[in-house]
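Lab notebook, bench 4. We co-purified these components, and the gel suggests they stay together. Before we commit to crystallization screens, I want a quick structural picture of the whole thing.
Request: model the full complex, all chains together.
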Amino acid sequence: DYKSLDKLIIGVIGGDGIGPMITKQAQRIMEFLLKKPVEEGKIEIRTIEGLTIENRAACNKAIPDDVLAEIKKCHVLLKGPTTTPQKGDPWPNIESANVAMRKELDLFANVRPVKVEEQGIDWTFFRENTEGAYALGSQGMNITEDLAFDFKVITSPGAERIARAAFDFADKNGKTRVTAVTKANVIKTTDGKFLEECRKVAAEYPHITFDEWYIDIMTAKLVDEKRRKDFQVVVLPNLYGDILTDEAAEFQGGVGTAGSSNIGKRYAMFEAIHGSAPRMVREGRAQYADPSSVIRAAAMLLAHIGYAEEADKLYAALDICGNRERKLVMTGRDDGATGEEFADYIMATIETM
Amino acid sequence: DYKSLDKLIIGVIGGDGIGPMITKQAQRIMEFLLKKPVEEGKIEIRTIEGLTIENRAACNKAIPDDVLAEIKKCHVLLKGPTTTPQKGDPWPNIESANVAMRKELDLFANVRPVKVEEQGIDWTFFRENTEGAYALGSQGMNITEDLAFDFKVITSPGAERIARAAFDFADKNGKTRVTAVTKANVIKTTDGKFLEECRKVAAEYPHITFDEWYIDIMTAKLVDEKRRKDFQVVVLPNLYGDILTDEAAEFQGGVGTAGSSNIGKRYAMFEAIHGSAPRMVREGRAQYADPSSVIRAAAMLLAHIGYAEEADKLYAALDICGNRERKLVMTGRDDGATGEEFADYIMATIETM
Ligand SMILES: CC(C)[C@H](C(=O)O)[C@@H](O)C(=O)O
Ligand SMILES: CC(C)[C@H](C(=O)O)[C@@H](O)C(=O)O
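Here is the predicted assembly.
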């Protein structure tokens, strides 16, 4: 329980590209909403510098040691987009900072809500966030020049805790159905184990309907306007979660509009799931980047640390400003408002509440 | 070139559940359309018995040896749905017959067309069909009771030949764009190799635009009505192909309506991609099962072996009968036509052409 801490430390990690600019706006809004506890010394909001691709490349690490040490002093984190090098990029082949952070901080549950009221969609995805195809993602083996291996890992405790998180959430939020998604008909050993653990946990919640689908057919089901409404809580291994949540977010207006929370026992991290838009930076338009997604992640953070009222106000303000001003502020059209102006507008809106 | 063979042998594999019944209807139609070459002894159409879950379970093999020997005597195959056991089923944990067949016959290219004219969709997917997450799919390792491993394998020749198949197809069919889909930002070793081979082949086709996306965002892009039209040919590793083609088929009316072709150097296999509907069999309604999807697969087979005119007639008849009679024959409503009546209707329609 965060409220019982002497001082709760929120770290704000800028990241790359438009990241520092948009997280700064989210930070201003958090400072505004948390003014009292900050003044009373109950909460501290820290900016954490240095999680940039340049620094990471220089030390050839997904997260530089000193940055990781700073991060570990915090309790909850708000994170901007970070660059993931791939073959052909000028940087060494280091792991995604997101993926590394999830493992280093043991943020095992990636929780992504998707809601489209007009369409009756109200899904919450529980993506396992530390193992699966991501566990050894950047440590595959080149056996010969022509033969490459990668590994997928599932542990029973790892599968059990995400299944339990999904069922607990369903139980506490009046949900009546939990769906497990795997490819256990082909990837039998790991996905089989994942499914087995889900079934065991399901047996402890006899009042919640449990069903199972394969990931291939599940991507089709989300497209089916008649039947997709029936899904409520979905629990799935890392890679399938990555895939299905992006598809799901599209019905809500695209990945750029969604926030994602990464929850562990000790730490929690909230992030926007769009990229760092290096082109906007190159073209000198970073100040026009839309901060609304990372502000939404900040609202998730506020709810998570127990500031439900502040979170609700922020969600409400995002709804109002998002609707009224969407055309102006979206994706940085330079005839629109800057990110700073948008944040000002959000705060002004909250003041009227 | 099949036309140069002394005798081309087409094998028809019934499979499980409704399989034998629906493939029988497709076989009748093929016999009807290939009457002349069959009478002349240029083509033989054989029924291959025994690829049933009972037989496979009895010998604990994905494909019983004697059945595989019979299959290997054919050149092209039409296959009905086969049961894939999963944890908790009464059968041993044997591999999917589809997956085993793809590997045994080295059917490296899974080609799936998806076309929705009203929406401007005209996609052809080239799914690598023998390696990736499927290569050792049922041979993962349980290191301890709580720790499971699976493997993903990509070889350079394996990736290269599917990339080449995709670009060749694009080139020969006036397509201007080929898209490679991986998750090379995380699954760096294998997906990185796959992408590298795609890039190498792309360099040989400078007149074709080549682009790259990650599988997560790609599932979102297919939902985007404005931008999805732009995709033409998509090449991707096994598991991503499995996932994306099911999503794609949904826009065309669902997985049940789609056919899939599995192409190798020596063999080719055509199949419907729906299940074996054991419940229909249990309820005694197998004769009402809709054979249109496996008949579509038969049309793909006819085109593949060089009987383009016969294939076109069959496609046209499917369009006519599918539209006029769809409500009656779909998914075996027992107030509708039987599969046999539907096949009769298809042949009568072709006779009027
Ligand atoms: C950026 C990438 C490594 C990451 C992932 O694959 O998890 C992203 O797609 C996400 O879903 O947060
Ligand atoms: C039945 C299953 C093993 C198969 C696969 O995963 O390849 C199916 O989904 C397909 O796409 O043909």
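The longest strand of chain A covers residues 147-155. Worth comparing against the SEC data before the next meeting. Chain A touches chain B through 63 residues (CB under 8 Å).
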